[in-house]
Request: fold
Amino acid sequence: MPTLILLRHGQSEWNLADRFTGWVDVDLTPQGEAEAKKGGQLIKAAGLSIDRCFTSVLTRAIRTSWLALWAAGQTFVPETKDWRLNERHYGGLTGLNKTQTAEKHGADQVKIWRRSYDVPPPPLAPGGEFDFSKDRRYAGADLPETESLKTTLDRVQPYWEGEIAPHLKAGETLLVAAHGNSLRAIVKLIFNVADDAIVGVEIPTGNPLVVELDANLKPTAARYLDADRAQPLPAI
Reply:
């Protein structure tokens, strides 16, 4: 039966610096590299044979997939990269320090921007340091100026249905190495999580979440491979 492995990238340089990252292309820290490698070791220890990998176009997710596949002894696995698996676009918050932003706008407002389902941050002004419209990775794409989790799901869902789900329906085992919010969007889809409940779902970095699916891609079992770092899972 189809199996889906969701892997959130390891700690990034801007995670460490407490900055809103979103679509900014930062690398992993040494800790993040170690987390990615451990994720791959856990996949190997679980005896999982991956048929295909999907990731975003951001370095921290791509390198997480590479390091995990290397540690799992499966570097030969075909990999597809797509911007629709990118992290949520943080709009005008992009690049800002999270603590300083809370001091400026108030912790309650920042919590709404970060954790609500459908309230996005202010849009990103065009032409600034973090204007992604000239980045060739996004040529021809209709780029957002900001995103909530809801609008992140709106661009993840067509990619899931059109590109990822068909391989699962063919019985493959897939690795999706991506980001906290794009993976939460996938979790919302496959577990049918309510809008008000998905905001409380956390996915730990570098800890593979293995979801076994039936022929209709409904979860039959789910577990984190590192039980010590597991987070609560939606009901099946």
Notes: The radius of gyration is 17 Å. Residues 3-229 form a domain with the Rossmann fold fold (CATH 3.40.50.1240). The longest helix spans residues 149-169.
